Amino acid sequence: MVSALKETIAGYLKNRVAVAGFASVDRFSEAPEKHHPQNVCKNAKTVIVFGIPVPRGVLDSPDYNLYGLHRTYHTVYRQLDTISLDLCNFLEAQGKHRAIMVPSYAPMVFSGAEPWGLLSLKHAAVFAGLGAFGRSGQVYHPEYGGRLRLAAVVTDAEIPGDPVITEDPCPPKCHACQKACPPAAFTPDGAFQKMVCMGHTIKHAIYPIALKGPDALKHIERVINTAGHDYWLDCDECVKACPNNR
Length: 246
Known about the structure:
Blueprint: H1 2-13, E1 19-24, H2 37-40, E2 46-53, H3 56-59, H4 65-93, E3 99-102, E4 109-111, E5 114-116, H5 121-127, E6 132-133, E7 139-140, E8 148-155, H6 176-180, H7 194-201, E9 202-203, H8 207-210, H9 216-225, E10 232-233, H10 237-241
Antiparallel strand pairs: 1-2, 2-8, 3-8, 4-5, 6-7, 9-10
């Protein structure tokens, strides 16, 4: 019964996403407070993670790389969210299960000025066997590298997890992403600083207007989750430099 449900879900996703994997909730034991699957779905047992890649052609477009990346990201985000919602309803139709979507991007929650997903999709992808963390802090799939955009569904249906990838995805001694990073978002020992990267990369015309003054942080979650959803990307040098993405 359990394996049949897994096969049914995999078949449902087969022609809609490039990759899909399953992770049991016990793999999330070290998730931060309020970002555990059981904070997302009551009695959560399984996280289903899936992804769609950014086409390689976007990364080496001679004149429109960032234009293509912007539209690709936001098209894929919406597509993944639609698939997440459809999968929730499909799964609940199979029996007395609960399911809830984990959005591909927004809405997010904020710790100070730092954005967090409801659940870390990167960690979920690793726990579901879709890739492993590289030196850049990104998750690398064996075929698609770091080009996958991700979404997930958390459910109280108990479904067997997939094997976790334990191999280092980065080529030996490769530091191409760190060398290519314009804002130097990596510390000297190689640790990735998310907010340095985002401050350089994520732009939106509304931010300077809506997020100013002493009370700006009080409104940051509402602004970014609504008016700031369709943000502009101003850099993808690490993605282009990575040999895993070619």
